[in-house]
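tool_call: predict_structure(chain=1)
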Amino acid sequence: MAIRQLSIFLENRKGRLAAITSILAGAKIDIAAISIADTAEFGIIRLIVDDVEKAESILKENNVLYRINDVTAVEVDGEPGGLAKVLSLIDNTSINVEYMYTLATQSNGKPVLILRFSEPGVARDTLRQGGVRLLDEKALGIG
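tool_result:
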């Protein structure tokens, strides 16, 4: 189960993040999760939104450089060791966790992690076999 994520590339300048979120807000696009990674000159904003197609259209209209990536959403036990359980399943493979961040909302009262793996299909199979609940866009109330 892949979740579509927007990765937006922009200059690391004052006001750029506000401009992007204003563009999306103006189109009534809800941001369910956001992660920002930056360097001195550029940043990558990773977003999970409620309407990827509409977001893609509005970003194109505004000449915003973006890419759509597939990521994995997993439900994590909201107690000490919940994250360790998920990551230990992956640690027993050759798969690399490229990055992760949390979703703003929960699923069944549990935290939700967004993960990008070097081998997503193998990672998803490994997590399923380990009893981890994977979530699709419908289960997250997006898409």
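agent: The helical segments are 16-26, 52-61, 82-91, 120-129. Proceeding to next step.
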